[in-house]
Design brief:
With 355 residues, this protein is mostly helical. It is 67% helix and 1% strand.
């Protein structure tokens, strides 16, 4: 792999001079961003498919629980009670209902997502710097734009997969409004297509865009800003106490954090960003999920207005935040896992002939 650590990182934190000395403090140099041009695309997509499939497998039960809570009818169970009931009444495999369908859509959706993300981030980042923005601002703007672009691209594949997998997730719930009993993903796809046409597979597409575009914008911008804030906070201590650093010449006044420290900061930033995105977009996600699993024969065409009215009638505006706990946990854990996996993927996919 190329030694990209020797390049000055955009987020390098310049430490202020010490109060009790005229000697300048060393600067903290972070690893340079691995942009789209430096990635080995075949390795990036092949390893990415394997890594993210493994992560999706581990986190899928929290998605099932969140979906069940969002479509539950009164009286509303807590997340703990719902978990116990699903386990006792339907068995542990119920937490993986619809997983095969979801996994089948993960590979193409992730490929589109990562392509749009990296291309947009590189393009917008360069344009922002040319417009005179500072490195932190340019990074936040590029990250937010990349998040929106990636979310929109992925939804063309992910919305039909989401509709089918969520129908399978909730059909074991005796109080949901789904009339069909699906044998599997292909059976659900065929029945939805026959019943509602293409619209049935893309139901909630607009709400998905409204949910995931701002969610991704908030997530990637928060991730960028959180990293900067954390490095600003811990950089002083890293430099002062020489902790978590690679070995370097003390005379060059440049200190480089070791890989373990970088990963810890990335994970903490991802958890913060995931929690923020979950809170901001929770009502939109609840509305989207309701629209995707409800049947039109339950009272006419499923619309945003009807869905919101039904939610408010059932439990007030607080109903829009039902399932926030599992979603917050899922997004925070998922974000931490995904970003450490993603950054690792970029490191191992970096072209080896780069200097």
């Amino acid at each position: 792999m190329s030694d990209h650590r020797n390049k000055q990182a955009p987020l390098a934190t310049q430490m202020a001079e010490a109060d009790d000395s005229d000697e300048p403090s060393p600067s903290l140099q972070l690893p340079a961003e691995i942009d789209w041009e430096r990635l080995d695309k075949s390795r990036f997509f092949f390893l990415g498919a394997a890594l993210f499939s493994a992560v999706s497998t581990a986190l899928y039960p929290t998605v099932v629980l969140k979906t069940r809570l969002q479509v539950a009818k009164p009286p509303f169970p807590s997340a703990t009670v719902a978990t116990f009931l699903i386990f006792r009444q339907e068995g542990p495999l119920a937490f993986y209902r619809g997983f095969a369908t979801s996994l089948a859509g993960t590979v193409p959706a992730r490929a589109l997502y990562m392509t749009a993300l990296e291309l947009t981030k590189s393009t917008v980042g360069r344009a922002a710097l040319q417009l005179g923005m500072s490195d932190p601002t340019a990074s936040a703007v590029a990250s937010a734009a990349a998040g929106v672009s990636a979310a929109v691209a992925a939804q063309f594949v992910w919305t039909p997969i989401d509709v089918v997998s969520q129908r399978l997730m909730v059909q074991g719930n005796s109080r949901n409004s789904t009339h069909y009993k699906y044998i599997g993903g292909l059976d659900a796809f065929r029945k939805i297509l026959c019943s509602d046409g293409i619209y049935g597979l893309y139901r909630g597409f607009g709400m998905s865009i409204l949910t995931y575009a701002p969610s991704n914008a908030v997530w990637w911008a928060s991730y960028s800003l959180s990293q900067k804030a954390i490095w600003e906070g811990v950089g002083f201590y890293l430099c002062r106490y020489q902790y978590g650093l690679q070995e370097s010449d003390p005379q060059d006044l440049i200190l480089k954090p070791d890989q373990r420290t970088v990963v810890v900061v990335q994970a903490a930033s991802a958890a913060i960003a995931g929690g923020a995105a979950a809170l901001v977009t929770m009502p939109l996600d609840t509305i989207k999920t309701r629209m995707q699993v409800m049947d039109e024969r339950d009272g006419g065409r499923v619309t945003v207005y009807r869905t919101v009215r039904s939610l408010v009638r059932e439990g007030g505006w607080g109903a829009c935040f039902r399932g926030l706990g599992p979603r917050w946990a899922s997004m925070s854990v998922s974000a931490t896992t995904m970003i450490t996996t993603y950054e690792f993927l970029k490191r191992v996919s970096c072209k080896r002939d780069e200097g």
